[in-house]
Amino acid sequence: MSAKNQRRLQKRNQLGRREFLCTAPLASLSVPLAFRRWNTFYTLTTKPTEMRIDDVSYDYEEFRYRTPYKFAGKEVDRATILNVRCVAHLTNGRSAHGFGSMPMGNVWSFPSQRMSYDQTLGAMKALAERVRNITADFKETGHPIDINVALEPDYLKAADEVSRRLQLEEPIPKLCVLVTTSAFDAALHDVFGKVHGLSSYGTYGRDFMTHDLSHYLGPEFKGEHLDQYLLKEPSPRLALYHSVGASDAIDKRYVRTRMDDGLPETLSGWIRYNGLTHIKIKLAGDDLDWDLDRVVRIDHTTSEVQAERRVRAWAYSLDFNERCPNVGYLLEFLRRLKEKTPRGFERIRYIEQPTARDLEKHRENTMREAAKLRPVVIDESLTGLDRLILARDLGYTGVALKACKGQSQALLMAAAAQKYKMFRCVQDLTCPGASLVHSVGLAARVPGVTAVEANARQYMPIANKPWEQKFPGIFLVKDGMMRTADLNGPGLEAVT
Q1: Could you give the residue ranges of the DSSP H alpha helices within 103-173?
Q2: How much helix, strand and coil, in percent to the nearest 5, is found in the chain?
Q3: 45: pLDDT confidence band, cut at 50, 70 and 90?
Q4: How many CB atoms lie within 10 A of CB 39?
Q5: Structure pTM?
Q6: Residues 302 and 442 in one domain
Q7: N or C, which terminus of the chain has less Cβ within 10 Å?
Q8: Longest dimension (CA), the chain
Q9: Does residue 270 share a domain with residue 184?
Q10: What are the helix and strand counts (H, E) for the chain?
Q11: Are 119 and 168 spatial neighbours (Cβ–Cβ below 8 Å)?
């Protein structure tokens, strides 16, 4: 290790969490430590369990939505799925193939008032090509999390270069970089588990990772390892969160065009079809009366159907997709909702990020008063440890973990959230097939997570069809619960 890097490491270990985040040269990254002279640093800490990447390839699948999904004021009616395959080997020569998959999700990760859907998707595809080359060219040995730490600065640099080359009116944001790279990260975690003949979740302890968590999350985590913050075995069951888009029909009176394809066309129909007990409600965030009416109507319809089913307990989460103009809107909404439907209010389990994702520019939107009523979770803003710390300072009390931000980041943020005693949930990106198996597997391993969103069955059922017989407990839900006890196979489980 160079003398410069030795001094930097010694200084970092002497700093407190906030001081380190403020002084680290890579504090904006999803993890705070990634030395640019990776080769010098890494060769001194190598383990025989580490892998070397041999090849990386990718392709796309295109799907049309069965019905549009409206959130954040926009309707989405299609999806591009990025599938990544990789080959890697250990120092003893053993090799394996890995697979990762994720929707590109440009409407959510790269929202723009000036660029079209095709332009933002095209930018993500151009970035994916660069990410593939950067990842394939990495020739050091390592654990997937350390490889992700080493490569993320180059991924972010590539995003800036793509933005300039394509002359984008807005640069590719970091959230979009995380979504684009998440399938590559998943493939690396998948192949690492497979080359060791283990579930990927069996490879996050000291036997496989060179560093303890302080290397990624700061001095507070000294002597702790990632597997301490994960369940040894997957939770046997998770409740299914059903998403009600802003234009979805609540009951038959709201159906605009019948599809007659054998699947439900209303919320009431979905409750009966899947035996639902958890419902996520997408709200406008800029129309208080509409938002109140929407929740009241959903609660009324749900109560009728659950009484018919003799179900006494169910839950809601509320998602404003960061469209509330300020925290005052949220507080007024909650006050009036409690007046209109006290029982409906009591069924709310948490609220997803209600105001703008740029926390630095909107520090006035502190969530302390709202969080006294219900957990308020950071979602769109959660692009790294520094954002989690800032969100806590602004009164957020929970985190929304997502596989689409990368397995590496999701695991590290799950550990940090537990350390700081924050509420934890796992959310969707309309993930079908392998990406849903990945997301559900993550939810099943994070302590405290009891439910997981899965809405591709509503909007892209055709993409789920080939997976139903392989994972019936995930894709064929009849009592509102996903069966997850068997998610313990090699790698991330989706493709053997």
Answers
A1: 106-109, 117-136, 144-165
A2: 45, 20, 40
A3: low
A4: 11
A5: 0.91
A6: yes
A7: C
A8: 71
A9: no
A10: 19, 12
A11: yes
pLDDT per residue over 158-187, tens digit each? 999 999 999 999 999 999 999 999 999 999
Helix extents (H) in 310-367: 327-340, 342-346
Domain CATH for 118: 3.30.390.10
Domain shared by 164 and 236, yes or no: no
Q: Is 63 in contact with 432 (CB distance < 8 Å)?
A: yes
Q: Is residue 28's pLDDT more than 50?
A: no
129: CB partners within 8 A, 6+ apart: none
Whole-angstrom Cα Rg for the chain: 22
Burial class, 271, CB count within 10 angstroms (exposed 0-12 / middle 13-18 / buried 19+):
buried
473 burial level (CB within 10 Å; 0-12, 13-18, 19+) = middle
> How does strand 376-378 pair with strand 451-453?
unpaired
What pLDDT, in 10s, does the model give residues 130-160?
999 999 999 999 999 999 999 999 999 999 9
Q: Rounded to an integer, what distance in angstroms lies between the CA atom of residue 356 and that of residue 255?
A: 32
Alpha-carbon separation of residue 245 from 180, 287, 353, 479 (angstroms): 24, 15, 16, 22
Q: Are residues 252 and 145 in the same domain?
A: no
Structure tokens at 331: 């507080």
Total length of the chain: 496
Q: pLDDT-derived band of residue 496, with 50, 70 and 90 as boundaries?
A: low
Q: What is the CATH number of the domain that holds 339?
A: 3.20.20.120
Q: Identify the domain boundary among 156, 185, 211.
A: 211
Residues with Cβ within 8 Å of 146's Cβ and at least 6 positions away in sequence, in order, are 42, 209, 210, 211
DSSP E strand boundaries for 418-485: 423-426, 451-453, 481-483
Report yes or no on 360 lying in a domain. yes
Q: How many domains does the chain have?
A: 2
Both 381 and 276 in a single domain?
A: yes
Count of alpha carbons within 13 Å of 146, Cβ hemisphere only?
Answer: 29
**In a domain? residue 138:** yes
Q: What is the mean pLDDT of the chain?
A: 91
343 and 465 in a single domain? The answer is: yes
Residues 47 and 162 in one domain: yes
> Do 350 and 471 fall within a single domain?
yes
- Supply the range of the domain harboring residue 394: 226-483
Q: Which of residues 211, 244, 265 is at a domain's end?
A: 211
Tell me: pLDDT of 91 over 90. no
